[in-house]
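for the recovery benchmark. tokens below, seq after
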């Protein structure tokens, strides 16, 4: 059985991100209280995280072990991140992707021009340095739970 766990240690997520070609250079500077993992009995099989800036957050680092893709871990983690975001007062989720535009489109994200990014989002290392300029920028507004 797979378990969703909040607040992972960096050593649980860095190898998985690296294996999936996702940035790890700035992990040590991030607040891992906004990260979640999906684990089986022996290893981390998926990860997702948020960089939070008031009412906006950059969704990042969704990675799933190749042998677990299509089993629902990514969707469970995305839901956990969205729920956490709503409970934290976040109103807008943003992300950059090179390979998963269709996946996120099916989950309510829409492509937007990078020039429309809030300053806090466009000032991140992820936006400015770590993701290539041709990565698709996407947005999803969130309802706020009461």
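predicted aa per position
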């Amino acid at each position: 059985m797979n378990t969703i766990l909040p607040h992972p240690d960096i050593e649980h997520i860095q190898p998985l991100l690296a294996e999936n070609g996702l940035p790890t250079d700035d992990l040590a500077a991030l607040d891992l209280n906004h990260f979640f993992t999906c684990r089986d009995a022996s290893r981390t099989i998926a990860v997702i995280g948020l960089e939070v800036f008031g009412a906006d957050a950059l969704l990042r680092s969704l990675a799933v072990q190749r042998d677990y893709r299509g089993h629902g871990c990514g969707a469970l983690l995305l839901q956990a991140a969205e729920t956490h975001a709503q409970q934290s007062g976040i109103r807008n989720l943003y992300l950059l992707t090179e390979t998963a535009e269709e996946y996120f489109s099916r989950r309510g994200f829409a492509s937007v021009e990078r020039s429309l990014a809030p300053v806090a989002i466009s000032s991140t290392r992820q936006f400015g340095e770590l993701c290539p300029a041709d990565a698709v920028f996407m947005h999803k507004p969130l309802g706020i739970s009461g």
